[in-house]
Amino acid sequence: MTAASVEGGFHPPQDPDGLRLADVALAVCFAVFAQVNLHFRLDNSTPYGSQFAAAVAVALATLALAWRRRRPLTTLCVVVAATAGPELFTRLTFTLWGHFVPLLIAGYALARWSASRRDVAIGAALTFAAVVLLMLRVPSIGTAANIPFSFVPITLALVAGRVQQRREHHRAELAARASHLEQAREVQIAAAVADERARIARELHDVVAHCVSVMVVQAGASEDLLDRAPERARQPLRAVQETGRVAVAELHRMLGLLRDGDSTPFELAPQPGTAQLPELADRMCELGLPVQLTVSGEPRPLPLGVELTAYRVVQEALTNTLKHGGPGARAHVELRYRPQALEVEITDDGRGAATTTGTGHGLIGMTERTAIYGGTIEAGVRSEGGFRVYVALPLDPA
């Protein structure tokens, strides 16, 4: 709830099913007690008219209280009609628990849960009119001289309901303001962090650019000295080596800084590659997915980016099979070293239906990784059942 919605008037929260059942249960219990009171006249009420008609009026007045939160004005109108309506035509027994207390409860509920002042005014007028009619038509509960005193409990019930509503209104307004301030604070903090990260990233970029420039100059000096004084070329080469270490370290820091929204610490350990695929297959087997790994062709060193892409594709495909393949699914990973490309094919015999649309985050990630290195990817359900992912990563230096 925002502050703007609170300003327009109090709106009671949507009551859950449990609260509705509680209201119905309380109304039923109260109705039963009121019927017992009417039958045995525990409050010493004077009997008038048809006892069956009085019992029906009491039942309507008490059971209507089950809707006092959701329909407060309607509830009050039903209670007033059941309590005072019959007195217009005949004289019925009037009881404390079956007539007067429901009037008080309905009046309190209207003042507390109604957002309309007009509804409260209408309800108050109907209640006061009902009390006047009852006082005039039922001699056992008073005379015309007692009418002003009978307004006191009704007025107290209406005032108490309105006061409680204002308190809840104030609490809701404070909660909305606190939530708004907290959101504004989080936005300000996020903006400040983003600005600071951008500033630091620019500074680190300058450091890396400077280191690369120094490396270029030192490499050129080394090349010049190799022809004239080879023994003196060692010093520039050492400078290139040391500057390269600094550049790599600063680049790691910059990449770690720019990892948007990732709160995990930046790992400086080597990224996984094809050499780690057997370990990945073993972990999947431990998780309940049997994996068979085969390698064809002559394994050879590959660019680190290609190594990482192949590993992540296999990892994501096996994870999808583990999630969506169903019980008993098995997977086969084949790595093919071609002269100009590295081919990775992952197949399984699971259900495969969970990823047929190709819109999952896993397939999107594999597609993006493959596209970076100019590769191709195919993913879909196999005709014989299961799912297949095929990726070809070109190894041409161009």
Can you walk me through this structure?
This protein has 398 residues and is an alpha+beta fold. The chain is 61% helix and 9% strand. It has 11 helices and 5 strands. The protein has a 5-stranded mixed sheet, covered by helices on one side. A hairpin with a 5-residue loop joins strand 4 (376-381) and strand 5 (387-394). The longest helix has 82 residues, at 147-228.
Core attributes:
398 residues, alpha+beta, Single alpha-helices involved in coiled-coils or other helix-helix interfaces, Heat Shock Protein 90, 11 helices, 9% strand, elongated, disordered N terminus
Give the SSE string.
Answer: HHHHHHHHHEHEEHEE
Q: Give the percentage of residues in beta strands.
A: 5-15%
Helical coverage, percent range? 55-70%
**Numbering strands along the chain, what is their spatial order in the largest sheet?**
1-2-3-5-4
Annotation field: number of helices: 11
Beginning-to-end CA distance, first to last residue: 58 Å
Calculate the mean pLDDT score and round it. Answer: 82
Q: What's the number of structural domains?
A: 3
Helix/strand-derived category reads alpha+beta
Summarize the structure.
This protein is of the alpha+beta class and 398 residues long.
Q: How would you summarize the topology of this molecule?
A:
Blueprint: H1 3-7, H2 17-40, H3 51-63, H4 72-84, H5 96-113, H6 117-137, H7 147-228, H8 234-257, H9 277-286, E1 291-296, H10 304-324, E2 331-337, E3 341-348, H11 361-372, E4 376-381, E5 387-394
Helix pairs in contact: 2-3, 3-4, 3-5, 4-5, 4-6, 5-6, 5-7, 6-7, 7-8, 10-11
